[in-house]
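=== Structural record ===
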Amino acid sequence: MSITVRELLDMPHLQLRLHSGKAGLDRQVTWTHTSDLPEPWQWVSSGELLMTNGMSFPADADGQEQLLDELHRIGASGLAIGEQMYCPKLTGRFTQASERLGLPVLWIRYPMPFVAISRAIAEATLLEQSQRLMRTARIYDALRRTTGGDVARSRTADALTKELRCPVFVCDRVTAEAYHPDGPHPPDDVKATVRTASQGTLVAGARSVLTPSGVEVLVGEVPTHDNAVLAVIREGGVALDGVLIQHAATVVALELSQTHLALEHTRRSGAELTAQLMDGSIDRRGGRRQLLSLGLDPTHSVFVSATGADERRLRDLHVALWRRRIPHVTAFRSGVAHAVVPGTDEAVDAIVASLGPNARVGASRALQSVARSAESAREATWALGTAQRTDARLVRYGSATSWLGVGGVDDAQAMVERWLGPLIEHDAQHRTGLVETLEAFLANQRSWQRTAEAMNVHRQTVLYRIHKVEELTGAHLTDTADIAQLWLALQSRDLLGGSR
């Protein structure tokens, strides 16, 4: 059985004395919580006795009354204040509120250590601790009973709802939507509350917050998964404490780890298919059959290429698409995420949203057939290059004129073949670095000396190579028109991904 506030006062060795709130002396004390933080009610659970030295205790009457109102709301058993410490003078309104609410306020005589009170309560609640241990064991057993099967729904959240006897949700930390595409999904007012509570770092246990309609929600961290939080709606005065919420969050973390392992297995097989499509090395019938089995009709699917500062988001693109129930295959190459998704605005916009505001995304035209997959991949790369150079978040191939004035992949390929083809071929045969030298020469405003310094070669080497470039291309690097053509060819090569 839990000890009451009255029984604590009757323990002579604790030397506690009552300040106010006599009507609440029969409140059950399940545990203690020591805090000198502002708004301490956010970290206290139902049945707990808050102990404080008063370092952040409000000095004004409004603040003191609010403190008692919030402690009463969450079901705290009382408030104990260390004497001769830092607590400001208690106001008359504070005392009246304590009496009105029946919330006991105790004085802890100096220098009585707070731990002595905690120990007395722990010894008096051994039976309850045993019951909590059994409940904790059942929480972990819920994981065993929910392993395997479809990962689209959080079976652990369902099991915890039954065990804790109140609704439990696993939410995305930013949007507060259900982390799993099939839910369970929290109500809209709970989502708004979770979004507010999840800003910043959540402490151990759970933070108690109210929805606009007055429903109490406990929001806690999910260990090792920074982008997920646990939300528990406490209904009907159900007894829940921070320890139980921590254990529940740990079970959720284990389920999420299993889910991500399953998704990673699927991603790897999809990455192989994506690579074959990009390289054009896949059997057409086999590729079509594989795409259709994944819910991707080649006729209406598109290639998407994306890059950004947050590499983790790029690597986890498959998770974001899974959560939005968008069919996909993905691959990650040299800092760029590639994906095949349905060619709808919803699918492409979901990629843009999931990668954040600093990401740049390019989308191809519709594949139409597996035979055109390699060409579609080049279109996506071209569109991505245009997005990077124009600082647009999304560029669809063919939807806008390239900043170069080159219409698309075919035009760019022709320009590269015409102006750089002889140089690329000569470099491949003789390892002369003509393309690299030309690029450095133009980047250094056609200065022989600065180009030599930038490339760490002799000035005469630069002279020889540039003359060779003019010989092979027929261009003159004193002619503005020829300079422009060579520069456009180099930019087109970059937009094509550096491939001829």
